[in-house]
Amino acid sequence: MWRYALVRPWLVTGFAALALALAAACGGDDGQSVSPGVSLTDPRRVAYATPWPQPPEPIFLEEGAFKPLVPEGEQEGEAAATGRTYIVQPGDSPYSICGDLYPQLMELNGITDARSLQVGQELQLPEGCNPP
């Protein structure tokens, strides 16, 4: 029983110190805090970005200003074919066939719309593609 009588004042003091530390860490009352009953969407109480006085001028780049990065060993504009093929199954998509290499699969086979795959269609596989 005496043991608890000695600990109890320290607990109260500890909790009070913790509450003060939390209040200080959260900024206390700096006049900018939201009080109960005030909506966080109240534009008078919430900071917002000020719009530009005048929008910036658009930048037009010349044709060919940027060149896409080409993986080492591949020629620009062409995916490397491996000579392997894959026959499209029901439910297949370029991503389900080659995962992250689906852009190379589409480029190699001249596919512009992923929804245009036909069941039974034979596709050339790019290097690194391992279909299911």
Task: Give descriptors for this structure.
132 residues, 2 strands, two-stranded antiparallel ribbon, Membrane-bound Lytic Murein Transglycosylase D, Chain A, alpha+beta, 9% strand
Structural features, described:
- The radius of gyration is 32 Å and the shape is elongated.
- The termini are far apart.
- The chain has a domain at 81-126: LysM domain (Membrane-bound Lytic Murein Transglycosylase D, Chain A, Roll).
- The longest helix has 24 residues, at 2-25.
- The chain is built from 3 helices and 2 strands, in the order αβααβ.
- The chain is of the alpha+beta class.
- The protein has helices at 2-25, 94-98, 102-108, and strands at residues 81-87, 122-126.
Number of helices: 3
Strand content: 5-15%
Helix proportion range: 25-40%
- Strand order in space, largest sheet: 1-2
The CATH fourth-level homologous superfamily of the domain at 81-126: LysM domain
Q: In short, what is this structure?
A:
By secondary structure, this protein is α+β, with helices and mostly antiparallel strands.
SSE topology sketch:
Blueprint: H1 2-25, E1 81-87, H2 94-98, H3 102-108, E2 122-126
Antiparallel strand pairs: 1-2
